[in-house]
Write a structure and sequence with these properties.
Oligomer: single chain
Radius of gyration: 32 Å
Number of strands: 55
Structural class: mainly beta
Helix content: 10-25%
Strand content: 35-45%
Largest sheet: 7 strands, mixed
Distance between the termini: 76 Å
């Protein structure tokens, strides 16, 4: 018998976050509790709404000297209207080793911004563009926007590579078989050439050999695989400096991972189960598998096979009590492995949601074991979308062990809906994600006046924007047009504004081919989407429970905040603070409040601002700035292969065009091939350095230009980015004398030195370079020698960390690191006590000489009552170059070699939904891909892609 939904409370969703409520309650307290739950959740969401960010890029693959063009959309997460909360946004470019190499600060007006980033000083590689606001730092870093892009370069290597790899068992040992095909960037085989090959696992060498390529540029090698084959690379090089470093993927059966996830959370005894599964290889990408589920008696109880990208689902008609289930999985290549299913629980509840694309409602099935049903307890079932409760009901099992109910999809907006079953203490018991598509995206219609265009023709795109009902809609949009011969069309379609905002922004981890799930309407893609939501973790945009007031305030304007403190670190209240600037021109003042805080508001926009701040009292007072520290940023998951491991002719064409453009600029013949670049750089000198060896004589030298480029980065951030072998650690017994040598005579010390051969002493935290402890020398003054660390009143590693974190790169003129015996000897003589020279030598310590601007040593003291403040520069967008080819001058113009044909970041459609964009074609026949994205600003978003043909055969 089917039980009824008791005390139903249906809550209708409205874009303005206002919910009209229809309550059918037999008990007032039940409806009140639902309303209180909704009111509390909605109040928090309304007061502290998260933001969602989307960036459209002109493309995802670049060449040296390129410019990355972007348009930023900042949305209110609950409503998807453009957010007015933040007026500033931050962009960072992160390497695949999680190093931030560029930072920008953008002005945001009414949720929109656009700009560009020069890539000319970045080497080839894979990068992640990360976007966030200061307000968004209150939420989890998963909420930040991330997008991968690639920079390809043919200057450091003229080789491309393709390979196949497999593994086989031979005489009980696993062997790898790799075929490597080498060619240059013009697809000419590296034939009959000697190539030095190395196979590395981390720093361990597995194989080394010089082999000659055959007439096709092919090399065939076999080597033994270690037990765990992760992080294996093959490095091929020659005497001319060509080199490729290729990560090898071995999707071996023993490395596959298959996880089984019952819908709603658990396998429950005596109840049916719907189970999702996901199979991935060593590279984290989905693999196709099939298999059977066996019970304890090895009887088959279910069959399964992957449906899309390693994911699928199957049903168990009933889960037997006390049973244990095993999946026997057939992996790629035919290998078979067994994986256990989750343990069976004896008592509990299961939640099943059926979301048929052809139905206008979702079906909820809730089933309980007999014991749970007989308890007669009630539960809350809620449906949340965008952190807003859109549906709520109380359910019970008084008349049955199962409940079934249909819920209208009209209660929910487009996107992910989160169904949660809670007990009466609001503790979640079961959860399930589904995707509801109301088909209410904006309709972007783009038409041309010709079927095809001639080279150098003027192309006009007529744009019409309508809502789902066909009504014209005003909005703001961005458009990228790229050449298919230079930019692979598939690289542009991995994610768009709709898939990002409605789907992937709410899912944890890497989602392969997100467009597949929403851009097609066939049953297979809908099933794949449901399997994705069964098996992928979700991201919460709700206000963290542990937070009361925001830690990071929303930046609603360009402002400067700080505090005035006295020598006792107490606030100085009601004192005058003045602000001066030449660029932008500013002269103003204010008073500190009771907490010593001051704020200058509504400052003008400026790309490289510098402000001089001073107090009326300039004796025994100091100024500290209230700048939020930047978050720790990580690169995206789903790392790509290096660009040179590719058959993608579009990237090869783009590299050729880039080389041609550079040759023309350098006055060289167009077909000149680049040799490996040899950089000749002048010796760096740090002005005012107290370097004992002489300024610039060190193993590493960073001069004033290096420090100015780093700007507001702390000294620790700078060193971590530029000194690859810097790490935090602890001193070994050789240095760790702090506890052992306290109050000891020299005779006792001599005996105690034997301790270096004993188990470790209590550890002392320190920073190490080349595994040697770092000693700071600031303006010739030692900042805590390693040997002096035995004295309890000397600085330790935590003091060094504090010093490096609290001072910025712009505070100093340069840094010189003396790590080798050549440069470390004189420092060792001066700064290491003579009594300890029997136990240490000059190669045991890394001496870091820092030269400050005032030259007064470790304090880097600022002028009392004054502060020179240089915030992160505001990025002002450049104009995209638009060549013009008047008809009478066509033959006089050389071909332009751009891969991005046109970029239009700010297209405004009026109330009639109309807009017009025009640009010129290049001088060669091709096919262009255009992508247009944007929003009406009130919660609706849209995406459109299409083609434009350029042909020599078009009649004039």
């Amino acid at each position: 018998m089917r039980a009824r939904f008791a005390h139903t409370c249906a809550i209708l969703f409205a874009i303005a976050s206002f919910m009209s409520i229809q309550c059918y309650a037999q008990e007032k307290t039940t409806a009140s509790r639902l309303l209180e739950m909704k009111s509390g959740q909605d109040s928090i969401t309304r007061q502290n709404p998260a933001e969602k960010i989307y960036l459209q890029l002109d493309k995802s693959a670049y060449t040296p000297g390129d410019t990355l063009w972007f348009k930023a959309y900042l949305f209110n997460a609950p409503t998807l209207g453009l957010s007015a909360k933040s007026a500033l946004m931050y962009l960072s470019i992160v390497t695949d080793s999680n190093v931030v190499v560029k930072r920008q600060r953008l002005p945001v007006e009414n949720g929109l911004s656009w700009g560009n980033i020069s890539l000319k000083d970045l080497p080839a590689g894979t990068y992640t563009l990360v976007a966030y606001t200061q307000w968004l730092q209150n939420f989890k870093p998963d909420c930040f926007f991330r997008k991968q892009f690639t920079i390809a370069d043919d200057a450091g290597s003229n080789w491309l590579a393709n390979y196949t790899s497999s593994s086989i068992m031979t005489d009980g040992k696993e062997q790898a078989h790799v075929k490597l095909l080498l060619s240059d960037v013009y697809k000419t085989a590296v034939a009959g050439k000697p190539v030095q090959l190395m196979v590395m696992k981390g720093r361990r060498r597995l194989y080394r050999q010089t082999i000659q390529t055959d007439e096709k540029g092919l090399i065939d090698i076999t080597f033994n695989l270690p037990g765990k084959p992760g992080d294996i690379r093959i490095i091929a090089s020659d005497a001319r400096g060509n080199r490729v470093n290729i990560p090898l993927n071995f999707n071996r059966p023993q490395d596959a991972d298959v996880q089984f996830m019952p819908e709603g959370g658990d396998l429950m005894a005596d109840l049916p189960a719907h189970i999702g599964f996901k199979a991935i290889g060593l590279d984290g990408k989905g693999i196709n598998v099939s298999g059977v589920v066996l019970d304890r008696e090895k009887q088959v109880v279910a069959n399964f096979t992957t449906q899309h990208l390693g994911m699928g689902s199957f049903n168990l008609p009933v889960v037997n009590k006390g049973e244990s289930y095993t999946a026997k999985v057939t992996l790629p290549g035919g290998a078979i492995r067994e994986f256990p299913l989750p343990d069976v629980k004896n008592e509990g509840i299961v939640l099943n949601v059926i979301n048929s694309a052809s139905e206008d409602s979702v079906k909820i099935l809730i089933a309980a074991t007999d014991k749970i049903a007989r308890l007669g307890e009630s539960y809350f079932l809620i449906g949340k979308a965008r952190e807003v409760i859109c549906y709520g009901a109380m359910v019970d099992f008084k008349n049955s062990t199962s409940i079934s109910q249909k819920i209208s999809k009209r209660l929910f907006p487009s996107g992910i809906t989160h169904f949660i079953l809670l007990d009466m203490k609001n503790r979640p018991l079961n959860e399930r994600l589904i995707f509801i598509n109301r088909h209410d995206d904006l309709h972007l219609n783009i038409s041309t006046d010709k079927i095809a265009y001639s080279p150098h023709d003027s192309i006009a795109l007529r744009i019409s924007i309508n809502d789902a009902l066909g009504n014209p809609v005003a909005g703001n949009f961005s458009l990228a047009v790229t050449d298919d011969a230079l930019v692979h069309p598939d690289s542009l379609n991995n994610e768009n504004i709709i898939t990002r905002i409605l789907l992937t922004s709410e899912l944890k981890g890497y989602v392969e081919e997100p467009n597949y799930y929403l851009n097609t309407n066939d049953a297979a893609s809908k099933e794949a989407l449901d399997n994705l939501l069964l098996t992928q973790g979700w991201i919460s945009y709700s206000w963290p429970d542990e937070k009361g007031r925001p830690v990071y305030a929303a930046e609603t304007e360009v402002a400067i905040k700080g505090r005035v403190l006295n020598v006792f670190n107490n606030p100085v209240k009601k004192t005058k603070v003045q602000l001066f600037s030449k660029s932008p021109v500013v002269a103003t003042d204010t008073l500190t409040d009771k907490n010593g805080e001051f704020m200058f508001r509504k400052l003008p926009l400026a790309d490289t601002p510098a402000y001089f701040i001073k107090t009326a009292k300039n004796f025994n007072v100091s100024i500290t700035m209230d700048d939020a520290p930047p978050p720790v940023l990580l690169a995206s998951a789903g790392a790509k292969m290096p660009w040179y491991v590719s058959n993608d002719t579009t990237l090869l064409n783009s590299l050729k065009n880039n080389r041609t453009r550079q040759n023309l600029a350098d006055g060289l013949p167009i077909d000149t091939k680049a040799l490996k670049e040899v950089k000749i750089t002048a010796k760096k000198i740090v002005k005012g350095s107290q370097n004992i060896n002489g300024a610039g004589n060190a193993d590493w030298v960073f001069d004033e230009d290096d420090m100015l480029k780093a700007g507001k980065k702390s000294l620790l951030e700078f060193l971590e980015e530029h000194v690859s072998n810097l790490r935090s650690g602890t001193l070994t017994n050789k240095y760790n004398l702090r506890y052992a040598l306290q109050d000891k005579s020299l005779d006792e010390v001599s005996a105690i030195m034997q301790i270096v051969r004993q188990p470790p002493l209590p550890t002392v935290p320190w920073y190490l370079i080349d595994n040697k402890p770092m000693v700071l020398i600031v303006d010739g003054i030692a900042f805590g020698s390693v040997i002096k660390v035995m004295s309890l009143n000397e600085p330790n590693g935590n003091d060094i960390k504090s010093y490096l974190e609290s001072n910025t790169a712009e505070d100093v003129k340069g840094i010189e690191i003396n790590s080798s015996g050549k440069y470390g000897w004189e420092y060792f003589r001066r700064y290491i006590l003579a009594d300890w020279k029997h136990y240490l030598n000059s190669t045991d310590i890394a001496f870091v000489e820092i030269t400050t601007r005032d030259g007064k040593g470790p304090g880097i003291a600022h002028t009392p009552g004054a502060y020179l403040y240089k915030p992160l520069a505001l990025s002002i967008p450049a104009h995209f170059y638009r060549p013009r080819y008047p008809v009478k001058d066509k033959v006089k113009h050389a071909d332009d070699l751009r891969s991005t044909i046109h970029w239009e970041p700010n297209i405004n459609a009026g109330a009639d939904g109309k807009a017009l964009v025009s640009f010129y074609a290049t001088g060669k026949p091709s096919t262009y891909t255009f992508i247009m994205e944007g929003t009406d600003g009130n919660g609706s978003i849209g995406f459109k892609t299409g083609k434009i043909k350029i042909s020599n055969s078009v009649s004039p």
